[in-house]
Amino acid sequence: MAYLSDMKAAAAYYPGSRTPIQPPARTLNTRVPDENAWDANPKILKVGGEDREFFTVGQLGAALGGRKPVTIRKWERTGVIPKPTFRKPSDDPRGQRRLYTRAQIEGMIQIAKEEGVLVTHAKPLTSTRFTERVVALFKELAA
Questions:
Q1: Is residue 93 part of a domain?
Q2: How far, in Å, CA of 16 to CA of 10, rounded?
Q3: What does the pLDDT read at residue 23?
Q4: Cα 142 from Cα 119, distance rounded (Å)
Q5: Ordered DSSP codes for 25-91
Q6: Global pTM?
Q7: Would 65 be classed as within a structural domain?
Q8: Phi and psi, residue 92, nearest 5°
């Protein structure tokens, strides 16, 4: 029996070494983003005297296939998506909070599905009509 327990203890070390085997420091994120989780916590703000739901850059990124907020900001900066219609002051002195309406996000999700943008790296954004259609959506919703 002592021999078996020695083998189990030895299995935790590299062969011929006293260096323990460490699990990988970081594993790949294989979690599939839940496309319905983005709207779990809307910001409720008064616009024109009535309460409206707004969503942040992070929530928009989650809705668009789990993209990071930095990607959404880059898309805005480079003209892939229009600048948000609504902004609110932030506690952070660097800027304001970008806010999107439910209609804007749901419209972008639909367009992204139709254009194949939700599948990361499936095809370059420049080979789709995603930008053109999202700009048209924002204009339509603003009217």
A1: yes
A2: 9
A3: 67
A4: 28
A5: S-----PPP-TTGGGSSPEEEEETTEEEEEE-HHHHHHHTTS--HHHHHHHHHHTSSPPPSEEEE-S
A6: 0.70
A7: yes
A8: -80, 125
CA gap 133, 12 in Å, rounded: 56
Residue 73's pLDDT is: 93
The alpha carbon of 142 is separated from its chain's Cα centroid by a whole number of angstroms, namely 24
Q: Which uninterrupted H or E stretch holds 120?
A: none
- Is 16 contained in some domain? no
Quote the number of domains for the chain.
Answer: 1
pLDDT tens for each residue of 25-54: 655 555 555 556 788 888 888 888 999 999
- Report which secondary-structure segment, H or E, holds 15: none
d(CA 52, CA 59): 16
Per-residue pLDDT of 86-117, as tens digits, reads 988 888 887 788 999 999 999 999 999 998 88
**Does residue 51 form part of some domain?**
yes
CA distance 117 to 67: 11
Say if CB 88 and CB 96 are below 8 A apart: yes
